[in-house]
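Hi support team,

I'm opening this ticket because the web form for multi-chain structure prediction keeps timing out on my end. I have pasted the exact lines I submitted so you can reproduce it. The total is 1195 residues across two entries, so I didn't expect it to be a heavy job. Is there a limit I'm missing, or should I split the entries? Thanks in advance, R.K.
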Amino acid sequence: MSLDTETDLNLKHARPHAISSSDDPSSKAPPQMESAQTGLDFSRYPHMQKNLSLHLPKHKAMLSKYMSKRQIKGLIKTGDSIIPGDGKNFPAFSETDFHYEIDRMLDFMTEDDRQGALMLLGIFSFLPKFLITALLLFTEKSHLFPNIVAAPLRMINIGIRGMIFTLYYSKIDDQKGQGQKIMDAMNYHTTIVRRDLNATSGSQDVLDYGLYIAPSSDNMKEIYARAHQSEKGLSKMPLNMRLKYIEALKTVILNKRGAIIDRIQLETQKSRSDALFSEIFGVLDHLQFLCQKAPKALGDAKVKTPIVLMGKKSRVVFGPVGTVLVISPWNYPFYQAIVPITTSFVAGNATLYKPSEFTPLQGLVEEILLEAGFERDWIQVIYGDGNTGAQLIKHRPDKIFFTGSVATGKRIMAAAAEHIIPVELELGGKDPMIVFEDANLERATSGALWGAMTNTGQSCTSVERLYIQESIYEDFKKILLEKARDIKQVVDDNGDSDIGQMTTTAQVEIVSKHLEDAKSKGAKILCGMEWDRKSVKIPPIILENVSEEMLVAREETFGPILPLFKFDDESEAVSLANDSEYGLSASVWSKDMKRTERVARALVTGNVSINNVMLTEGNHHLPFGGTKLSGIGRYKGVWGLQNFSNLKSVISESMSSKIEANWYPYTDEKYGIFDALTETLFKGGLLGFIKFAVLGMKLENYSNKAGKKGRNRSR
Amino acid sequence: MACENKFTSQDSRTFKQRDFDAIIVGAGISGSFIANEMCQKGLKVLLLEAGKHFNKNTYPTREIDANSQLYWSGGIELNTSASIGILRPKGVGGGSIVNQALVDRFDSIALDSWKEQSGVSFFTQKDMAPWYDSAEKELAIQEIPEQYRNGNAKIFQQGFEKNNYKWAPLKRAQKDCHFEDGNDCIECLSGCRIDSKQSMGVTVLKKALAKGLYLLPEFEVLKVSDLGDSVKVLGIDVYGERRTFRAKKLVMASGAIGNSKLLLNSGFASKLPALGENFYTHPQSMVLGLYDQDINAHKGPLQSLKSDDTTFRANYFKLENVFAPPVAIAMLVPKLGHYHLDKMRRISNMACIEVAIRDTHAGKITTNSKGKVQVHKELDTRDKETQEKGLAAIYRIFNSTGAKEIVNGSFAIGLHLMGGLGIGTNDKKSVVTPDFNLHGFKNIFAADSSIFPNAPGINPSFTIMALSKMASDKIIRSWQ
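Hello R.K., no limit was hit. The queue was backed up. Here is the completed structure from your submission:
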C-alpha cells in the first residue's frame, strides 16, 4: 500500500477490519466487530472529512543523522553556488528539497570522507556565495600546483561537486516534482520495460509498510525475523542517536496534531479536548521526558563496591531486552501506542505493536514514524484481535507490555508463563477518591467530576468510587450535581465539548448492566436518568445509596457512572478505599497535609494524587502501574525505561596473578582467618575496622600463597 | 526464515556453518566462477561478499542510491593525488553488475607481454583458447543489431570512417535486451533489471547456489590467516558482529585493491615482497562533443561499437563509445553555475567517446597504520603522451562530424583495477605462482584481475573468467 495512494479520503481506513473468527474464546471482541462507527453519520462531522488522511509530504522532521544545522545551511548555500538555477527550467538547488535525502549518500560514505565533507560545508556556511563559487573554481586550477596542494584541491572539488550534483541530478522523487522537472529540462528520459511484470520499471518505489491484516503463523515468522534483524542494528545505535529520532517524532506529532486528533476522535468518539489534553499533550510530554532523562536513566550506573571487594569496580549496564510486544487498548489508542513504543525504542529494542481492533488508527503510527525517519522494521504494526495477540506471544517476544482488561491480562500472563516471558500488565481499576471535610468544595467537586467523566469515564484510573466525609456529603453532592448538569456532551469539531461518546457498544452494554443492577438493588440515580440504556451517548450518571452487592460498587464500570459513598473517619475511609480487588490509583483531598500524607501511605495502590485527581500520570517523570488486579510492573519515568531494559551487573578488575580468598584451597587456617574477619566486619565499631583491615591483609596474603602452592602440588 | 533456503544468500544471524572445503573472498566474476566450479564438484564452499545482494527487483533505480550502494566508499575512490577516480564495485556479482559486459579475448600483443613479464608459459593464444571457450559456454553473447545503434554510435562510426579509423561491433554478454521494447540500457549500469546482462547472478552464481553454495553477503573480511594445513578468515557481518570461518583452502577474489588490502592488513607483506606492486588501471578520459542535433546517447543500447584499430593498439590506447547518466556527466563537465547548466541542458545533444590507455607506469597499493588502503598511481610522461594521442583522435572524430563544442572530462577514471598480486615465476617480483597459489602458501589462491602482471589494454572481464576456470581446475586437482 503506497503512501501516495492514500490521498483520497478513504473512510474505510478508519474502520477496523473484520478480522478473526468469532468463536475464538481468547478474543474479547463481540462477534460482529462493531464499534461506535456503526450508524455514525459522517455528514454531521464535515471537519473530519477534511483531514482524515495523514498524507504527508516526504519531508522528514529529522533531516540527517549526521549533519548539524550549520552544515545543512552550508550544503544549501554551496548547492546554490554550484547550481543557481536558470529561472526557467532548472530550479536553483535551494528551490528543491533534495537536501532532505542527503543521508542516502552519507550512510554509505567512509567516516573520514563524511567528516571531511561536513566540515567543509560547515565552513562554507560562513562564506558568502560568491566566495564559495570562487573557491570551487579555484580548485579546478589544481594542475598549476604541486601534488601536495593539488591533491586536496581536487578532493574538495570532487567531494563537494559530487555531493551537490548527486542530489540534484538523481531524479529524486520529491513532492514538488523538481526531480522530474530537471530531467525534462535536459530532455533526459529513460525506461526499462519489465515484460515479466507487465509494467514499466524505473518508477517510484512503492512504500510498503508491511501492514498485516489477519497475519498467519507464517507471517509471524517473518515478523519476528524482521524484528530480530532490527534488534541488532538498534542495540548498536548509540542512545543519543535514538533520541534524535524521538526528537523528530515529537516535531512530526506537534505539526500533525490536528489531523491526529481528527483520527483519534473518529475512532474513539471522544471530545477534541480529551484528545488534545490527554493524548497529544501527554505524548509530547513523554517524548520530551525521554529526550531529557533517558541518557541518565540508561547510562551505566556506578554502584558501590563494599570494602571486602576493594579494588573492584561495580556497575549496572542497561541494554535492550530484544523484541518487545506492545498490545494497546482502545481508550487512549494514540497515547497507549506511542508511549510504550517509544520507551521500548529508546531502550534499544525492536517493537511489535498490536493496536486494539476497535481503534486500530490504521496507518497512523506507521506514517508518523516514517516521517520522523524511523526505519520500517524497527517498529512493526500488526493489526488483529486477541487471536493475533496470542499468536504473537506464541512466537516469543522478549517482553510483553499489555494494557487492557484483567481477563485478557490473565490469559496473556498464562501464555507468557510457557516461555518465562516477562510481562507488564496495566489492567483495570476501581479507583477511589477520598474527600475530607476540610477540603475546598469548589475544587474537590470540579476535580471529582473531571476524574469520573474524563474520556466519558473510559479510563483505567477514572474515579469510580467517591468517598465523601459525612459532614460535607450533602453540600458536596449539591454542588457536584449542579456541575454535572452543566457538562456539555458532543463529538465536537472545535474543542467546545467536555466529553464525547462511548467508544464501543460492548462497553455500553456493561455500563447499562451496572446501572440496571444498581437500580434494581436500590441505588438512587441522581442525574443521567434520561439515558435510554442503549445509546452510545451516555450522560454523566451519579448514584447514591450504593451498596456493596452492586456491580457498580466492586467491578470496573469504565463509563460515566459515579457512585457516591459516605464515610465517618480516616480509618474508615482508608479501609473502604482499600477494600477492592484493584489498586491502580487514588486521590485524597484535605487541607491537613499530615492527614493526606498518612492516608496516601496507607492506601494500597500504585499512584496517589494529593489534593488533585489523576495527576500522577500527568508527570512523565513518575512511574505508573498498579497493585493487585490492577496489574504488574511500572512504566514511564526512569523506572519505565529500566523496565524495558536488561539490567546487567558488571564487576571488574584488571588482570593480576592473585588468587582470591574465596577460591581453593579451603584450609582450616583460612577458615579461621575468615571466621574472625566475618565477626569483625559485621560487628562494627572503630576497633573492629582496624582489626578487619589487619585480618583482610592476612587473608589476602594467605589465600594468594596457598592458592598458588595448592594442597598437594609440590611447587 | 529464508536462511535455510540454499537457493538464496544466507543471513548471518542464522548461518551456523563454520568449516568449509573452501572460502572465497569476493563474489565478483572470479569468485563466482570459481565458486561454481567447486560446487559442481560437490565441494562445500563459502562465498563471502562485503556488498549487498541485489536482484532485478531490488537494484537501485536512482543514481544517488546506485552510486552509494554499488561501489566501495559510497561511490568514487581516489588515488593519492586525487587525479584518477576509481570505481570499485561492491556487491554480489561485483563488476558484472555495473559493467558493460564486453567480451574480448586477449590478443597476442597482450599475451606476449604477459608471458615476457611473468615467465608464465600458458600465456599464449593456444593455451588460453580452451579456457576462453569454457568461459564462453557460461554466457550468452550478442552484438547489437545495426538498426538499434543509437545516435552516439552513429557519430562514432561516422567519425571513425571519416578519419580512416577501424571500428567493430562490440560483443556483449547479454541475452534478451529487447531493444524493440524501447529499453534504454544506460540503466543497466546499475544492474540489469530484465536479467539480460550476463551478470554472475543470472549465470554461474545461479548454478552454484543450486548446487549448495553458501553465499553470505554484507560480510566484510578483515583478516585472513594461513594455519599451515588450513586457513582462517575473520570478518564483520551486517549486524556488526565479528565472526570467524575456517576452510582447507582460501581463494582471494576481491580484486586488485581488495586482495592487496586484505593481504597487507593480514601481515603477508614480509613473505610476499611484490605484494601491492604493479597496479594498473587503464585510465580512461571521457570527452563530450556537443552537437546542434539530438544525439540521445542515453537511449537504446549504451555501447554498440568499439575501436578495432591496429595503429591505436600499437600506440597503447583504444577508444570506446560510452555515455553516463546525469550525475556522472555533471561530474565530468567542469566548472559550475550557468556554464555548467548550459552544458547539462544539452545532455541530449552530447556524443561521448573515451580514450582508455594501456598504462605502463606501474602503480602501487599500500595500507596505512589504520589499515586504510592507499592507491599510488600516476601517469608518467609516456602514459600522458598516449593519452594525448587518444584525445587527438577523439577531437578529430568530433570535429569531422560537426561537433559545435568539445568538453574534456574534468578527471580520468579507473574502472579496470589490475595487479597487486601479479602472477609470475619469480617470487621476488610476483605474488602468485603459475598454479595460482601465493608464493610460499599452498592453500591460498587468486585468479582475478589482481594477478594481471601488467595492463593488457583490453577489457579484463573475459580473461578473468578464463583464468578463473583454469585456476579452478588447478585448485581442484591440488586436492586430489
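A quick check on our side: Chain B has two domains: 18-54+91-139+198-276+421-480, 74-87+144-190+281-415. Let us know if the file doesn't open in your viewer.
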